[in-house]
Amino acid sequence: MNKDFESLRERLEELTYPSVYMFKFIVKSELQKIAQIEGLFDPEKAEIIRKESSKGAFISITVKEVMLGTDEIIAIYQKASEINGVITL
Question: What is the domain count for the chain?
């Protein structure tokens, strides 16, 4: 696991689970990229909010979903990091 995920793990382990966790991603306004990010979540349980940038070149995707633990959150971030061009906040 890289240092970014180690630092994230330390912060996440301070939370109490289950807990609603908010993920935030920025991607180019490409349907495939948006679908890849949204595909990481359960469409029946996640609240997904999209917001287009002022020039329309990028989309911010905010997702709120109940997470059962630190490993579940990190797994989503790891999968998201494999998507070319995604920025995680």
Answer: 1
